[in-house]
Batch of 2 targets.
Target 1
Amino acid sequence: MERKRILITGAAGFLGSHLCDRFIKEDYHVIAMDNLITGDLRNIEHLFKLENFEFYNHDVSKFVHVAGKLDYILHFASPASPIDYLKIPIQTLKVGSLGIHNLLGLAKDKNARILIASTSEVYGDPNVNPQPEEYWGNVNPVGPRGVYDEAKRFQEAITMAYHTFHGVETRIVRIFNTYGPRMRLNDGRVLPAFIGQAIRGEDLTVFGDGSQTRSFCYVDDLIEGIYRLLHSDYAQPVNIGNPDEITIKQFGEEIIKLTGTTQKLITKPLPTDDPKQRRPDITKAKSLLGWEPKVSRAEGLKITYEYFKSLPKEVIEKIEH
Ligand code: NAD
Ligand code: UDP
């Protein structure tokens, strides 16, 4: 049988590279695209020798051309960590607007099904906890996080418009904080920040009083949820995340225990508009996809810690603050 062909944008990033692995494992032909603005080719270099894998260094905010037939598109290109999108706000807005427009046009042209990576950030600093898909959110459009949150909200809107007006087959996954191997140690997100600090023998920086909550999902669970959603017939947004909610202070304490560091938690100012609580309501994912997370935080953190420890010394030490 002829292989299904899938385009994955953001393929050299954390999640994109795990998606490449999964679809290669399922015997798809994977066309990977990335402009490497926050990604790293080392995440996918093990795939370069395969005949069913191609890579294109391309900015998807510019016209996207793919030769031949295309069955599926996964749009994951976008800076994703607060320090990244604060550094490159315009590119973040462009990939969430011009980029998605190009990819929806491609999906329409090729008659391909497209799944887009949305985020729990569409709920902003939520007044409802846990967050169901029906909640419209509480986003500050002109605050520092607005460039990411509003790009993702626009992305959802234009995706629904292509679905409704052009009949394009679309899927929207709202991803909640996900972690695992291939996260960048210096991407500023709390998990690599804390583990990196513990490995380097520095104190762990808790922003604010640490009472804000997050719910961390291990990457393998997320990828399984995305795989199931892509193959479902549901076009409305679906939350994928792990509902096991924890305060950032407790999380810091867990990392201290895991790593055995003798360092302590120290406090730094809370960034503007930092959400106070976040936890996915996964009722829809359970009922529509038969999906729920399988990997506990204890297990996932252990695997991720081993990964970070195995990195070359110069990667561990080269951290911007
Ligand atoms: P990442 O930074 O590791 O990966 C993003 C990739 O996109 C990078 O390789 C980057 O170089 C590439 N990219 C960015 N702009 C591009 C452009 N214009 N053209 C081509 N490539 C471009 O981040 P990630 O954590 O893997 O996130 C991937 C996607 O998932 C993003 O869309 C993000 O918004 C979404 N998401 C992630 C999380 C999470 O917890 N990791 C949570 C919610 C949503
Ligand atoms: N955070 C922290 N110390 C750090 C980095 C982040 O206390 O060194 C906090 C941050 O303020 C937020 C939470 O951890 O409340 C999660 O931050 P992250 O950047 O990982 O993701 P997001 O805010 O997008 O959920």
Target 2
Amino acid sequence: MHSFDPDKITLPSGHFINGQHLTGKGTALTVNRPSDGLRAAELFEADAALVDDAVTNADRAVRDSGWSSCPPRQRGAVLKRWADLIAADPLLAQLESLGSTRPIYDVVNHEIPFTAEAIRFYAECADKYSGDVLPTRDASLGMLVPEPYGVIGAITPWNFPLSMASWKCGPALAAGNAVVLKPSELTPFSTVRMAELAIQAGLPAGVLNIVQGGGAVTGSSLVAHPLVRKVSFTGSTATGARIMSDAAFNGMKPVTLELGGKSPQLVFDDCGDIDEVAGRILRGFTANGGQACVAGTRLIVQRGVHDALISKLIELCRGFRAGVTWHDSSRYAPMIDRRQAEKVASVVSSARQQGAEVLVGGERFADTGEGYFWQPTLLAVNGSDNPAVQEEIFGPVLTVQIFDDEAQGLALASHPTYGLCAGVHTKNIDRALRAMRGIAAGTVWINRYGRSGDFIIPTGGFHGSGIGKDLGRQAFEACQRYKSVLIDF
Ligand code: NAD
């Protein structure tokens, strides 16, 4: 049993700079618990001066400690120890569960193992990929020499605080950089513990730092700091655009941007077992209460299987129950806060005004007080211009559109703004590969939906869903810059 009493946990809500906790510095913001809306802690927002302390110190630490210049295998060994500590730390799991939308069951069985595995993956990358020796036309030897950037600024969202931190810190640290990470101001606690464990694992103090605060003050100060040489961001498309512009005007820094999505689930008549497909579709839009960038929130279903699939989905949606994240029996995530719940309500309401029909759900679970648990919702829509089809809702809302032939299905699958992921469900391999080619998305899942902890395949969006990749060897390589060397001898 992993249930715990949230009132018995001391929440680390301060900054973590140079291996030290720093509390009470900055303007106070209130952080609430998503499960019941009660106040969890005061968060002190880092201003530009404190961000400057963290970055300047990180820049010194990464060089003076030898982290950037030591044998890469040595860095890998520290990261492996860190992964082991992450996997074995009950407090880390509790902080994640209490402070975010993630039920403890999910945190223990998925979030923590996946976080540790991402760090292990990059521990193994540390000495596996190097530069290149190239045949040149007029020099005796040409080389491409990778080197770390120095300090990487990482900014993460609230939906998967530990995973997102591991995707940013793993490759950056393995490649020999220092990191100054700003977690979301809504979920500040678990990353502090994660950074503390990194020091216990042998990471030199100052190489991984956490600064707390919102985007306008702390986040923008981090992006603009002259010693931050690269920015790695995950969050909404609007914030990503702002960060890209700030990074360009403050030193032309490279950015990795993992942004929003509105991903289609394309189901053909020949999809196979309907119950199994319904399970995939259900998980795709209800995992973390739909608060996942990769959520498959647009069902585009061929007429022949429409009725059977919808009736199975309605039955499954009716089986969900709300419950606080710190009980072992809870499986379903609340909305992160009242604002997010109101956003879901407002899009559902405008969708209905514009002709959408609620097939199941459509409102909050009753009797959950200030915890905002939204019922899994199916909306039959009559046109792609419906707001529920256009907007990233970030809640458990699945729109349903019907198609007759393949070309029509593919046309409905494309989205004017986003291109993060897509699900294709068919037993016909030719059709599956045509659909894979035809959909503009950074990831296409065929007869499955979701990644489930395999980090060799990178992730990243097309169009408004982002630039660059997280995960895979590609993210490690993106944490290095390459120096071209020509030698005559
Ligand atoms: P958000 O854009 O509001 O905030 C993300 C982070 O950016 C937060 O830490 C926030 O404080 C910070 N921020 C805000 N304004 C900033 C600024 N001007 N300068 C610097 N930092 C700033 O996103 P959110 O609401 O926390 O997260 C939800 C969004 O994240 C969704 O759109 C979701 O699709 C996206 N997301 C994408 C991926 C992916 O891999 N593509 C993964 C998870 C979440």
